[in-house]
Fold each of these.
Amino acid sequence: MEIVELNNLVKELHFAEQREILKILAEFSDFLRPYRDDLIISARMLSYIDFIWAKARFAVSINAGKPVISSDRELNLKNARHPLLERALAREGKPIVPLSLSLNKDKHILLISGPNAGGKSVCLKTVGLLQYMLQCGFLIPASESSELMLFDDIFIDIGDEQSLENDLSTYSSHLKNMRQILESAGKNSLVLIDEFGSGTEPTAGGAIAEAILEEIEKLGSFGVITTHYSNLKFFASSSKGVINGGMQFDVQNIMPLFKLETGTPGSSFAFELAKKMGLPDFIVKAAESKAGTEFVDMERHLRKIARNRKAWEERLAKIKSTDKTLENITDRYQKELSGIQQMKKQILEEAREEATSLLAEANKKIEATIKEIRESQAEKEKTKFARKDLSHFEQQVKSSAPAQDDDKVARKMEQLIKRKERREQRKSRSGTAVSTDTKPKPLTATKEELKVGDKVKVKGGDLIGEVIQMDAKQVSVAIGSVISKMSRTKLEKISGNEYSAIASKGSQKHFSVRESEDISRRRLEFKPSIDLRGERLEQALEKVTRFVDDAIMVGVSEIRILHGKGNGILREEIRKYLRTMWGVTKFRDEHIERGGSGITIVDFDN
């Protein structure tokens, strides 16, 4: 009974506690009730800010960037990385191999083939995941120069969806997905299919897959498809909208390289992998004979292409290294030859002075001898002959061989310079004929070429600055607080020490005075809007460049560009160009009542 009473007391105290809690919550609810709407709005705003902050932290953790949104139906991924795979490899201390691929409205489907475990599915999943991340508002782990579209639909057929409940086999589940793609896909759709045509008898599966691929091509959909079927590789090689791609393979070490090569199909390397896994040679040879000579020959040709490509890449790297070494040697020889020429001139000059001194002494002695002859009443003809011999000897000393030797040295230096020019011309003509990409890439830039961040000096003056942006024709240089555009030929690259030395002399101070006067004048004359209606695209972009430069220089926070609506071509090109311009923070449409999409407002980070 004593325990019962104590237990009842505990229960009563617990109920009293609950009543007190409810009382406090009710009073607190009464206090907050007038602010109910404000609290709901604040909660939504906080959740939205938290969501944005979480996306930003995630982007930093995967080293993500913001790609360019294409308006020309192009999908160009550069140095893309699968975020989950990159983290898994980082835990194992292994580097990830980045993916680069390019699709456009003409070649809009990439058919990837190659060995098992070679990276085909990873390429496909990387494209799909990064595209979906972008469309969900995430930054993607790829270069910021990548260019992606925005799709209306993304169709995926990856993995095995067989089901006992729905009476679906592996192949029938694939066919169900194919039917949905053919019924719903269009020009603004992305199709991702892994192991296309697999799951049934190879001949029938390959034929059905080829027919489906042909129809997807006609629909104009973008796609990344992986397969092992040879008939699909042949179809892609003759198709207008499909391009072959192959995963590279190290034939010597029998291991995948996880690098995508577009333009040529990949080999399955099934027989090589079978040998590596330890299958007996007689079984592998029997399998090769059963596969048929046509299949074996095609695989052999693909392996030969892979070996030749690797050999050419190694040779190209060796040639580049040799060219660099030869260039250094040529420069060193040229400097040494110039030093030898200067030393030779100095030695010859000293020799001439010594010979002149000796000749003067000889003249004195000869004149004394002639004087003695006269005094001894010698014949005049003999005296005249002696003087003539003396004069002839003097001319020989003064115009001796040094001039001829100088000419030889000069000709040698000219030959070295011409040889260097011919080698650079050969390099520019050959380009990258054996490059790993389908488009040729320029060879490594010479040491005289400029890049962003270089210190430069304006030729013929003391103005110095830093390169902040470059295009095909002009270079944007920050000189003090002024950004100026000028031709590359007017600039010469200088070292950091030279830059500091010139800056310390005060040459920039004089320029700053002129700069402030010029900025004050241009700020008074500057108008924050420009009308480009009726302008041709090239002229309009040139005016935008000058207008933005002036705006940045005078320090305004925003400008208005009036381009009109029309078909929207001029607006799209101007905005695409603004994305690449230094100093532009963002741009937007004008308010609908003041012109809407016919006017672009540009904000700066002043």
Note: Confidence is low (pLDDT under 50) at residues 432-447, 507-514.
Amino acid sequence: MRSCFRLTCLLGGLVLWVRPALGSELTVKVIDPQSAAVPGAQVELFRATSNRRIALAQTSAQGTVRFRDLAPAPLRVHVLAPGFDDAWQPVLGGEPGNATVTVGLELSARLETVVVTAARTPLPEDQTGSLTDSLQAKQLDRMNPSSAADGLRFLPGAIIGTAGRRGGLSSLFVRGGDSRYNKIIVDGVSVNEPGGTFDFGTLPLVEVDRLEFLRGTESILYGSDAMTSVVEVWSRTGTTPTPELELGADAGNYGTEHGHLALSGAHERLDYNLFADQFNTLGSGPNDEYSNSLEGANLGTKLDDRSALRLRLRHDNSATGVASAWNYNGTNVFNVNGTTYTLLPDFDQKARQNNLISSLQLAVVGPSAWQHLFTGFDYTLHAVNSDFLSQPGRVDAFGDNLDTAFEDFVTINRAGLDYQGTYSERTWAQTAVGYEFEEENGTVGDRLAASFSHGLRRNHAAFGQQLLTFSRASLLVGGRLVENQSFGRKFVPRAALTVLAFRGGGFSPTTRLRFAYGEGIKEPAFSESFGTAGGFPIEPNPLLRPEETRALEAGVAESFGRKYSLTATYFNNLFRNKIDFNFAPCFCTGQYVNVNEAMAHGAEVEAQGRPIPGLEVTMSYVYTSTQILKEPLAFDPLLMAGQPLLRRPRHSATALATYGGQSWGADLAGSFVGRRPDSDFLGFGIEHAPSYVRLDAGAWRRLRPSMTAYVNLENVLNRFYEEVTGYPALGFNFRAGVRFRVGGE
């Protein structure tokens, strides 16, 4: 916390450096297709006959910006807002005086949509050389997912593996990568454990304004863990001059109860959003209960026309019953050494998490064509997984007891300072530079076995990225230099080229070609680098190198007017220096070492359309082929060289349709995951998990201007399936409720 206090003081000093601007003004108001204010949009001002930017600002919570001291001349306004098309609008006349211009944003096919994660600054997707899918606030309201896992599973290329039901440990697999190869960012804060581990099953998407999911390696911008994807989440901002109170509650089968409360608004230079959420369920079986409490705040103030300060806080506390693995592909009856056993769920194992995320951001525009973003961040995780009773009858294929007492714990703190500067004097060039300092401090282990590992890393990183946009091509090149206290210095590059091969019109499609090369890294986990003492001792290995990936991708994108798009991408990933555990000859200790290597390649096809206002449809198919190239320490035949990687399906597909009108809306989401290799690791002979289809649906209806009824259905077909073999997923379930809005606009 001392480091967080020092960072706050530093940001406070930077605020004093900012000077207010005086003079005549031009006001630009940015609105969405429903005429609602768009906060945080990037507004650029150009002379009518020049591509040199003369001013830049971000819209306030009310969706407005003001430009002062403008010389008499015709102007052009350029607006970039995540989730919308970029927009150009002329401003005619001479001296602007107190003129006001309203810019209305539009939605269209994905290739023209502005995204943030791909370049850490708003850019149209066709300039980034990356593929980014997103879920906007209104889509999330219709889907009403109980966790990030239930939102992500319907996005192209996302394979979710949940060990259990509500609150179960949920992992993400992208492009054949491990579950630790994804960078997760919430309100500008990295929330991975050191080494990449993250649980999507306990991350609520309450009061989230936008979720972006980027496929591909992005370690040059985000450092460790961004090997195959980046998932970024932003909290909502209050926008209405009249305070708005939203409260709602729903209930469903399996004893599910859910309540939500939020107070938001904006007054002059200030905006606020305070929210709380409680989710409880008993589950569909023994030891299947789950609860999660969330509290959060998003507070912002516009210091002057050039600078703004924003504080974000999210705290959640969850408790989950862990039934553990007990039903493999539909059966829990096994013959062990001539004796038939009925494997029962674990009746007393519990998992608890307590997460606190905080960030303080200072955004400064200028001088000249610069934008500066200073972020102080702090993330603290306390997690405990405990089982104090030895339950009889839970044995493996060798008759050994599976249910032994333990109390595994994780205590992690990540705090630091991040700076990003963006320089874009011309319309055809943009430069981004940045620096990050982060302190990782934590302890992991087993309290009952008196086994623990403490680690401390103070890491530095600097990155640079250059975007050049020509008449028919965009080139993005950059690199990141990392100084990690565990593995030392490492440089990772990335380059992406997008070429407009054919400019269509009428019924002719616009064709773009895309090529990208990148490298990614993932730092070792604390137990891998620092070892453990007590219990079963693990020797530390200070010479561990980061796991690495070399990523290639090439694709073609077709735009059919402003309503439809089709993309096809080939990807090829080589994973090197993968970490594995090496037992000592006595089998009484061991050490983690870099020995493994694997590859993955495949193809992704995605179609998106907006056939009528309010309706958005996305469909995708992904083919993934994986192979283990080196794994000399394999203890299971499924892990030996030549085998495919576990839990990566060869075939998968998604479909998501959402509609929002004036008085009603609905969503329909489907996910198909093909047969994939998996193992019980207990000698029962389980070598795969069967394919499955999951179908979800939801609808809402406005009963009164301030009252909305809604219903959400999951696993509508009531299919039995397991995302991770041994862990049956939840059957058909529903939630229905009412939401009230008081005040606002």
Note: Residues 1-23 have pLDDT under 50 and may be disordered.
Amino acid sequence: METLYNKQTKPLPHQESIKLGKWIGINQHEILFAVIFILIQPILIIPPWQHLQEKYRSFEHHRTETLRNSYNISVEFYNKTATLLYTEIINREEILHWVALANTTEIAQQNHARQQLYQALKETYQNLQYLDLRQLHFQLPDGTSFLRFHRPDKFGDKLFDVRYSLMWANTHKNYIFGFEEGRIYNGFRYVFPLFYENKHIGSVETSVAFPAIEKVIKLIIRGEFMLLLKKQMVMDTIFASEQDNYQPVTLNDAYVEETVAMKNHKEIPSLLLAQINRQLRPKIHEQLKAEQSFIADTRVEGKDYIATFIPISNVQQQNVGYLVAYDQNSELRELYFLFYQRYAEFGAINILIFVFFISVLRSKNHIALQNTHLNALMQDKNELMGIVAHDLKNPLSAIKGYAEELHEAADEMTLEDIRLYASKIEDSSQRMFSLISNLLDINAVESGKMKIVRQKTSLGQVLAECVARHQDRAIQKHITLEFSGTACSVETDAQLFHQIMDNLISNAIKYSPPRTRVSVQVSIVDGKIYCVVEDQGPGLSIEDQAKLFGKFTRLTPIPTAGEHSTGLGLFIVKKLVDTLKGKIWCESQLGQGSRFIVQLCCCMD
């Protein structure tokens, strides 16, 4: 019996092989999956890396273009001011007469003309200081300095060799403006040729320093700004006695900055700015050589900073330096964090596939549900893309059509026709800009990236500014726009509140017929603030009110002057009000106008 028992309980050879085979088979699969996992893991970095590069390029383009546009606006602002100065004050008989008398070889007559010209414009020059115009400089036709109002005792030096703008204006007898090197200061110069009795008698120049340009830029965008100039260019042009006007910068040894501008850094303290520059220095060396727009970031004292660089050209279209904007900003760090997060997510997914491959295969129902969800998302995306494409198609077609007509018939058009077409192109571009801006606002709100900066805000002041900003449009439509209410302050985000009220006032004007009234009121009741925008428009039906704050909603009322509507304005308003933890609703009846009420809490005074 023992022999039989032992014989029966001992595993047979083929049974051992089966067990061993199963054990080997499982491990082979695991090894295979492990090999696949190891091979796939490096590949998974490609999609998030590509996404990071696309976001980085988009972010860089946005920042550099914003800085470039702000710079151009600032230069153009002083272009308008200089033109006004020339037209209204310089280009007059009594001024041109003294400049004409200067065109003589008699020293006494030149000195007399110089004295008379100085006395005639002395007060004007003093007043120019309030506009940040620091120079008023007259030259003879051959480029000889005749009268520098900032240095009246320094004249007679030949300037054509170092001042291309003067040579060009006096040679071509035409106006020129832009950045240019100078023997005393570098600046943004505006040079006008002068004529007396149909004879060219010289030129007049006014200029502004970089701090003046910076002041205007700061009205558009925030940050600290620095104008880097090529050191060699400055040393080759400026008087030796004036070289102390420039100091080296820690960013790069090949660049300098005006001493006056260096002392004006207030947004970022000078010591902190120097520390930021020292950390950026090795990162930007090669990019500065390329003379292209770019951005660079660093982290100092636990805070993230971004420096935006755009090359600056002189009147000869030569790159002479960089305009640099510094800003405390963590968006790039967030992009890198998102990249690592996505790569980690892809890696985790890969591990889950490796570990649970068999169970995933058996989860067909789950996959089917996921596919249904994905299809629904795709359908939403396609619907959104269809709406956006439809709303962008018309203005794009209009721009294309007007541009083609301008291209084909510009020679035959009058200036008025060209302005009309340019106006239509501008209107179509504004429609596209409004739609894209609304989409970006929606994305910021829905993604939770909308940054709230709460501070004590005077609602009366904000509403008065909103009303003032829309007065011109109201007047164009013969609509009375008025504001009344109680002075009060509240802890809120002033920019978002601006955007909310701007949308509501704009909508009220858009849908109101001529010779009606739009009123904006603010009041305090039981510790709550009520901001009301009331119009005398067509009113809203119950059906319209039910879908009033929906996305891409088209309501029954039609803009009274053919204005464009994206169907996003009130949706954004509702989201912004929710973000500020307020409430918004509408009271309206058909034919009796509408009242939009925004309720805020926490009244401060």
Note: The domain at 212-333 is CATH 3.30.450 (Beta-Lactamase).
Amino acid sequence: MPTRVELDKKEYPAPRGISLFECAEQMNVRVPTSCLKNGKCRECLVEVTAGMENLTARTAEEKHLTGQFRLSCRARINSDSGHIRCHTLKRQQMKIEASSSGLPISFQSIPLEPAVVLDGTRILLEGKQIATGSSVYGLALDIGTTTVVVRLVDLQKGEIVAASAFENPQRFAGSNVMARIQYNVQNKGRLLQRTLTGYLSHVIEDFPVDPMDIYEVVVAANSAMRDIFFGLDVVSIGQKPFHSIREIAVAQGLRKTTAVEITARKLRLPINPEARIAGLPIIGCHVGADAAACLLAIDIQNQNQPILMMDIGTNTEILCYANNKLLVASCPAGPAFEGGSVNCGMPGLQGAIEKVDISASGRVNYRVIDAAYPEGICGSGLVDLLCQLHKSGRISNTGRLVNGSDRFMVDSKAGIYLSEGDISELAQAKGACSAGVRLLLERAGLELPDLDRFYLAGGFARYLDLDSARHINLIPNLPDHRTVQIGNAALEGATIALCSIPQRKMLEKLVLSAEHLALEEQERFFDYFVDGCLFTGPALSC
């Protein structure tokens, strides 16, 4: 009996010697590649979750990979029977939205003043001709540790043309920022940068415009992800006091901004070679350009009352603005709420369980994105599940399953479950967020009742059930009318910066005045963290 290969929920009886890439071709599963199965582009990543022993050993082209990752064109079937389960990195087209709901500002509510304009047939970048043509497009790019999101914008009309999202292929180097930094330092050849730009190139090529008409890309990302993307040395971000080399240069008076620029030619993206790739400024340490982009999205310069913003992700950023003073902090939340470090976790893409309810009889009811076959649970579903498990008495206040089992089955047929180890990962993530909020408010001399608005940002924040998030103490226990879900504010902010040079310049000045609070150095951080890890109902209350 041939070896049974399961790839992205499709199956194929594979004979010995065939590669996983060839199996994918037989199943009509698309695997990214730029080198036509020669092992050179390193883009055809798959994650093998079962049956690794039925594959040939890693080849020289795969020596950069860690964990369960393989290059599908190099990994060949090495048995005459058995079962191999693997999946490609997820990618999907996104629903095109004019703006993020809940935000006090959007890229369409400000004057359209992009850096790139069309003057007759001349293409001008901040007044300098770089090409000729009849169309001008730009990209807003949010590089998350777990997910990468791209918007294509018509810079003449100020309209979104297309959007796409994909799992960050740098996952093979680790699920968190520090692991990526260590990998990037230890491995030469800019493998993380090349892998990401390879995947991004395929997205660009699939957009419904000529890539040569794309003349600027504005990038929002955390400090490490931004600098890796631009090929900068990230050693200093991984060591105390965790400063980017651009921060260090500003502190030494060698630069005026932590923003970074490079041409598309140098980055080898398949857009106009004279196009500018612009990385938004870093605020401080691990509070990066993604948090800076969020400041544009919440119209920070016009906020007259105290506000708090939390952008939940692998590296959660918290920002407090009161009395014209900006305080920022980053929380080592980890990738749990983005689907990483959780056995059946996944990003909020097609096939992810996004909503969970447990009935009085114990029946698990759920909703899947795009009504597809369930493949895993994304962040909003995990928050619901934790809340339901605690409310129904199935987990204790310390996060232990009370029936003595080591896992709770969500769907036995689909093999989707939540283990005690998963619960621990999620508890630590929410504990870090909770501690960060408490410490930042203390530093600002504020209490929860003082806040006019709490902005909740992040890839899955728009779809969070607020009651569930409050119950597990992931977010402050503020009333609904003061809690605003703004979704991917970093992407919206990057789009604002793409469409408005004045907004971009204002942001560069603003971030230089921010005060960064190192949470791990605060005396009460550990106590607050431990409190936040517990499941005792809403704790951060008015």
Note: The CA atoms of residues 185 and 235 lie 7 Å apart.
